[in-house]
Amino acid sequence: MFERFTKDARAVVTGAVEQAERGGAPAVDAEHMLLALLDKEGGRASFALAALGGGQWLESVRDALGEARRRGGLSQAEADALAGLGIDVGEIVARVEEVHGVGAMSGDRVGPGTDAGAGKVSRSRHRPFGRDAKDVLVRALRVATSRRDRHIGDEHILLALTTRPGVPAEVLADHGVTYEAVVRVLYGGGEAKAG
User: Fold this and answer.
1) SS (H, E, C) the chain
2) Could you give all domains of the chain from N- to C-terminal order, each with its CATH number?
3) For 2-12, how does the pLDDT look when each residue is reduced to its tens digit (9 = 90+)?
């Protein structure tokens, strides 16, 4: 499937691996795909993000992703649902971090295959794509196919992220980046194409 990816889409995928490495994550996940998209300039996805006001909220998106990571990957909607059951996720996070340190629930902690005490995964270790990252790539293929595009571009990855339940889609939607908004920017009424 990777041979069908445009240069921009390939850059996002390799950027996601780099994001996972920088964060010390054991696998590449959908969040890393989103972070790589936010870092990528010059592609159709960056055009859509900029048109939707991206320059004004990129740091807010990064902060929201960091907060979700601190909550152990729970979306705000999931944390709110648990609050409705009387479970205070913020209190749980605070207690865990009190005992184990800040970021203890993020999954980026010291363990097998990490540099001792550094909390980072060794750079030589291969990072597999997690189930959610694989799902984003499959969804990107489906989006491209449904739009009758021959290649999978970074815009298809962005569209896939907006359709998949979870933290990246929630954070994007909170900033006005929905599937419909991205389609409107990129394809207009269905005829015009950006870039």
Assistant:
1) CHHHECHHHHHHHHHHHHHHHHHCCCCECHHHHHHHHHHCCCCHHHHHHHHCCHHHHHHHHHHHHHHHHHCCCCCHHHHHHHHHCCCCHHHHHHHHHHHHCCCCCCCCCCCCCECCCCCCECCCCCCCECHHHHHHHHHHHHHHHHCCCCCECHHHHHHHHHHCCCHHHHHHHHCCCCHHHHHHHHHCCCCCCCC
2) 2-69+122-187 (1.10.1780.10)
3) 778 999 999 99
